[in-house]
Design brief:
single chain; about 120 residues; mainly beta; Rieske Iron-sulfur Protein; 4-stranded antiparallel beta sheet; 1 helix; about 5% helix
């Protein structure tokens, strides 16, 4: 497996096969559901990462946003989140975007469901 996002949160990963990597070939943002939680898979160049779907600032649907230069842009208020660390652009009062460990194995995208279960609401 190749790590593509954050590392295991405490070594107790529970990897879930989500979908084939080719599904992200023609789009940068894809909605998925893992462990009854709505998430996004985001492609930024060769990097694939998973994050929460609702903007932590105003709860807008980030699947309607766009990806550019390593950032995910909110469609409601046009602030953006750094895909590397989740921090919001300057001037916006918000916690960072939650990101979840993601791996690629045998041409498929896997997400650590234990990290989703352990995330604070």
């Amino acid at each position: 497996m190749t790590d593509c996002a954050a590392t295991d949160h405490d070594g107790r990963a529970r990897w879930v096969d989500v979908l084939p990597l080719e599904r992200l070939a023609d789009q940068a943002i894809l909605r998925v559901r893992v462990e009854a939680v709505d998430l996004l898979l985001v492609r930024d160049g060769e990097r694939i990462m998973a994050c929460e779907r609702a903007c932590p600032h105003e709860h807008a649907d980030l699947s309607l946003g766009r990806v550019a230069e390593g950032r995910l842009f909110c469609p409601r208020h046009f602030a953006s989140f750094d895909l590397g660390d989740g921090h919001i652009s300057a001037g916006w009062p918000s916690r960072p975007l939650r990101r979840y460990p993601t791996r690629i194995k045998d041409g498929r995208i896997w997400i650590d469901a234990a990290a989703i279960d352990g995330a604070a609401p």
